[in-house]
Amino acid sequence: MTSPIPERIFHIATAADWRRTLDSGTYTTSTVGRSLEEEGFIHASRRDQVQGVFDRYYASLGEDLVLLTIDPARLTDAEVVVRPVGADTYPHVYGPINRRAVVEVVPLDRRGGPETLMSLWIKGMAVRMGVALVVMAVVAALVVALQQLG
After folding, report:
1. Are 76 and 101 in contact (CB under 8 A)?
2. Which of 30, 92, 97, 145 has a CA-to-CA distance to 128 between 20 and 30 Å?
């Protein structure tokens, strides 16, 4: 018995893997540390399964992650098959995911929820402030060193 294919399926990806897709045009990472070639398919989920997948496999990864929303009808060289996994069913993508099939990409926070514009802005500001503090410390050390020389 096969389950119907959802209108949209989801896949958690590292931001680095997604950036490679923007260059190559196709996404081929099956899951953490495994390629489509190694696994034979790309793991996907329904929206209600995303948090559980994040908690089990991605929460401790420590990399920037994105949630890909995939329209199965837009896949050109792949087929989606819903297969039983334990007591549930999950969509599996047999073939590469072409860029056009990905209809939305949302950055994920460290708890697996969507990043907000405010949190992204705060992170960016924190990085810029950290760089500014390092530069100020270097300049201050140079000023002290020059004063001691002169």
Report:
1. yes
2. 145
Contacts of 22 (CB under 8 A, 6+ apart): 99
9-115: in CATH 3.20.170.20: yes
In whole angstroms, what is the distance from residue 91 CA to residue 81 CA?
6
Nearest residue to 27 (alpha-carbon basis) of 49, 12, 45, 48: 12
How many angstroms separate the Cα of 46 from the Cα of each of 60, 66, 69, 77?
A: 22, 15, 10, 21
C-alpha–C-alpha distance, residues 15 and 25, integer Å: 15
**Domain boundaries, given as residue ranges, for the chain:** 9-115, 116-150
Per-residue b/e over 114-134, b at no fewer than 16 CB within 10 Å?
A: ebeeeeeeeeeeeeeeeeeee
* CB 52, CB 85: distance < 8 Å: no
pTM score of the predicted model = 0.74
